[in-house]
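User: Predict the complex with 3-methyl-2-oxobutanoic acid.
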Amino acid sequence: MNNYVKIFDTTLRDGEQSPGASMTSAEKLEVARNLARLGVDIIEAGFPAASPDDLEAVRRIALEVGNPPRGQEQAKVPVIAGLARANKADVDKVWEAIKGAAHPRIHTFLATSEIHMKHKLKMDREQVVERVKEVVAYAAGKCPDVEFSPEDAGRSDPEFLYLVLGEAIKAGATTLNIPDTVGYTTPDEFGALIAGIIKNTPGMHDGITISVHTHDDLGLATANALAGIKAGARQAEVTINGIGERAGNTSLEEIVMTLKTRHPVFGLETGIDTTQISRISKLVSNYTGMAVQPNKAIVGANAFAHEAGIHQDGMLKHNQTYEIMRPEDVGVSQSRLVLGKHSGRHALRARLAEMGHSLDEAELDKAFARFKDLADRKKVITDLDLEALIADEFYRPRDIYALDGLQVACGTMGLPTATIRLRGPDGKIHTHASIGTGPIDATYKAIDSIVKQAVTLLEFNVHAITEGIDALGEVTVRIQPRDPLSKIDAQREIAYGRVFGGHGADSDIIVASAKAYLAALNKLITAQTEADAAAKQDYGVMLG
Ligand code: KIV
Ligand code: ZN
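Assistant: Here is the predicted structure with 3-methyl-2-oxobutanoic acid placed in the model:
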């Protein structure tokens, strides 16, 4: 058995379908580019049958990330996968979306547990087997790389699984992905399930990859996936920060860093450049507005912080007393002083390039202006500050309403009042003043008066990026429209709960808060436009 574990990232499919994680097409493309840089083997780019917009996002990723850049034909590019329910129409949509990639993959699934077959599919075992044979063969007729998942495998009868998987192999599947869809199994059970599948599935051979796909309902996703890998699985389906349905999916960073840190235990390799982990974690958190809990393994703000005196004493004597990984292994730059007030454009370009951002001249002009503005207010500028500036300037959603000016009066002497100036979609400037219970409430009320979207603010997080009184503040928000965006979206809302996230960074936290709120509202308005267009086409919605 080989010792390479393929990393299949499903942040853009299983991750994106979790409540509030929706990203715009441009954000998905940017995440896909960064996943390729991270070195993932397979990117599941989406569910093309969900909507024309989802199909288009997958198609762009297939073309732009799934092919080597011109002149670098030998460069490694990831496989681009799309998910299809077990019907020919879904498979056709996936194929249409991914066929432009150098290495396309069709991923199809059908439930095999009694509870799913009886209540959801209303199919018996024979019908399920027939459908799997038919759809996998149909997919294999289009694409040489086909993955099949027996949904809810964790609660399926193993004997029935062997039969279904054997038929999937015969019909042309080359990867068999075993999902613990509802996060129900324990590591011993899941490891035994994988071992049983490898041993008992008819037609199993070296060309078949067994994959693990686990959910975190009982907090066991990583442990279960590792047990499956120990039992012989050589693909792990994961998401950045573990985002995904309900309690989430197995997180990429936990699997990869366990295999690396405990290499003597597993003896397995991945192709991941672990120094990219911290950066992509922030990117996904910013785009989705889903803050990473501070104590989250590997990527939480406290993952490498040592607070207790006894720990700090140990760390000063020898860092391995309390640290099993080095922060730099996952790309956490320790408030590194990189640039200051007198640094020039060239130094900024060079540092950004080292950090993986290659900007064109116009983008560099914008970044330099933001950098100079910050350097006037903050003495030392670290990599973390630069990441926040870049995310704020270039990775925010398309500006429908853009902040043009903000003035806030607050304190103990009067009513908190905000006057806001926004540039609207028509290019016109809109100004409004509001009072509120505090400066942020006043600012958001003033924005609401102009943008006129009925939303509930579900979550508001603010934190300082670096230490010190002059630190850059970063704000993430999550909002939910009070009315469904359209008829079609009302159905999506039942499936996912439609929540929009936004991110903003500035040395003034009220400005950062306004930017974050506007980013979320801009996403909502974009989604509304797309939903209206989709409703006109009477497109099917994803409920699988
Ligand atoms: O959790 C699950 O069962 C899935 C499948 C579609 C692979 O996400
Ligand atoms: Zn899943």
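The pocket of zinc ion (ligand 2) is lined by residues 14, 179, 181, 213, 215, 245, 249 (CB under 6 Å).
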